[in-house]
Amino acid sequence: MTNPILRVEPLGFPWATVDPFLFCAYHDDHYPRGNGQLAPAVSLAGREIGSDFSRKDGFSMYHGDTVPGFPAHPHRGFETVTIVRRGLIDHSDSLGASARFGRGDVQWVTAGKGIVHSEMFPLLSEDEDNPLELFQIWLNLPAKNKMAEPHFTMLWNGDIPRQVVRDAAGRATEIAVVAGALGDIQPPAPPPESWAAQPEADVAIWTLRMEPGAQWSLPPARGEGTRRTLYFFKGADAVVGGQAVKAPCAIELRADLEVPIVAGGSESEFLLLQGRPIAEPVAQYGPFVMNTQAEIMQAMTDYRRTQFGGWPFGAADPVHGHEPKRFAKYPDGRVEEPQEA
């Protein structure tokens, strides 16, 4: 039997990725109660405010100085896919769009030729803690799409298909399909200029939650040359492709093989990232990802000159009030709210 595992590595921060993915950050912050100003109701002494990744007391302020999060910052040349499992994020951007999303929602932003956005983590509850758990995934754009018009969209929790499969013993595996079909299950369409929108790209973003002892087999990828990584981020141990592994770890798999997965004695959770490589040169400087250093220099010049359209909000870290209601306001003024089951 051919071994489907190419390598196993421990997880750091951020998680290592392979082409067409650039970056994957997993944030699992145990924020305390809010103080009425959507900020932590605890002392922030000992933190490097403005650049706090300390995880002191189980959470970080990141680049926020009052509300945790990432105030206005630019991107060019790639996409961000933000999957929020717990908590809420307030988004604002230079297109004039804004949103409050979370609790299973996914935001997909094509930066293209340039966008500025903020991602703030408001602590709405003053009566209990405000945990926040999310993935932010950077998906590269091919050269022909790097200067595409920026695009913002929401994939609400209720629109993301989920399949529950039970093994012979009745133990459940739940698969959430954010991108890339799983059998007959089709997720919402990705943005039109995305690498994920190209049929030959074979991009998939799935999350798996397995009950203790559950068994499920990851089907082979459809595309030739596809690469895939399975991130085992919650649980204790599992058997993947016949090999015992311990969490947290990244498992690079052969994409042309079916891979049996058996959860260990506790609930196990995985993130799958797969896609056919774009296979183009990558030049990166912070939030700009292009193909050459000359293009990086041009991105920096363009941002200094145009601010990628300017910032239409009165603060670099806008938040959207004290009501937990989720919404998206698009650049054309259209307001959308999730339809809950």
UniProtKB/TrEMBL annotation:
Residues 55-139 form the Pirin N-terminal domain. It comes from the Bacteria. Residues 206-309 form the Pirin C-terminal domain. CDD domains: cupin_pirin_C, cupin_pirin_N. Residues 314-341 are annotated as: Disordered. Residues 319-341 have a biased composition (Basic and acidic residues). Belongs to the pirin family. This is Pirin family protein.
